Amino acid sequence: MDRRGAFALGAALTAAPPYGFAAPATTHCHADETVVYSCTFGPKTASVCATPGAIVFRYGRLGDADPDVQVSGSGAGGPARWAVITGGGGGRQDSLRFSSAGKNYIVYSAAYGSLTAIPGRRESGVVVFRGYEVASMLACPVRGPQQRISLPPSASGAVQDEADPEFQAWF
Predict the structure, then answer these.
(1) Do 82 and 151 meet the contact criterion of CB atoms below 8 Å apart?
(2) How far apart are CA 87 and CA 28, in angstroms?
(3) pLDDT the model gives residue 61
(4) Which of 20, 59, 65, 169 is the most exposed, fewest CB within 10 Å of its CB?
(5) Is residue 140 within 8 Å of 117, Cβ to Cβ?
(6) How many other CB atoms are there within 10 angstroms of residue 116's CB atom?
(7) What are 138's strand-pairing partners?
(8) pLDDT of 2-53, one tens digit each?
């Protein structure tokens, strides 16, 4: 490799964000909101954002004034719902459900337990239901903390425990 090639490779490596840190503009959350979850799926991004007493799900292209989907946890579809599932192998899945216009948007993050075939593996994503039927699923590789649901205490008043057993499941 000549000097120009080595310089270009070095510049590319130093420009990449280190593991566990988000690159700029990777979320729909505004400056006054806390990122609960965010992941990019091709040209679009799904984000869950919180402020004291409020939580919202947004999905669409970053930078668009109006995302394709924006569902408030305190909107007409009712409050956002929180579920935690603990598996027999020691795994755990956290999920948030937002409802609007006959659709349920479930954002989840999971970690496989030490007694499973793939201990420590993490995954996350978004599942869209029409009623109780899966309409679409988007899987997101966990690259850092933005792909792990972390509900800030200030948003706890905007979220209720999941009461529907159909949505207390592994996704």
Answers:
(1) yes
(2) 31
(3) 93
(4) 65
(5) no
(6) 15
(7) 126
(8) 444 333 333 333 333 333 334 346 899 999 999 999 999 989 999 999 988 8
Q: Please, what sign has the CA dihedral across residues 70, 75, 76, 77? A: positive
Helices (H) and strands (E) in the chain, counts: 1, 11
Sole residue written with tokens 């799926």: 41
Q: Quote the CA–CA distance of 142 and 39 in Å, as a whole number.
A: 9
pTM of the model: 0.80
What is the distance between the alpha carbons of residues 80 and 73, in angstroms, rounded to a whole number? Answer: 4
**Residues whose CB is less than 8 angstroms from the CB of residue 86 and which lie 6 or more positions away in sequence, other chains included:** 92
Token pair, residue 39, equals 């992941």
Q: What is the pLDDT of residue 64?
A: 85
Give the pLDDT score at 75.
65
Instruction: List the structure tokens of 145.
Output: 């903390």
Cβ atoms of 62 and 90 closer than 8 Å: no
Residue 140 pLDDT > 50: yes
CB 130 within 8 A of CB 151: no
Average confidence score pLDDT of the chain? 82
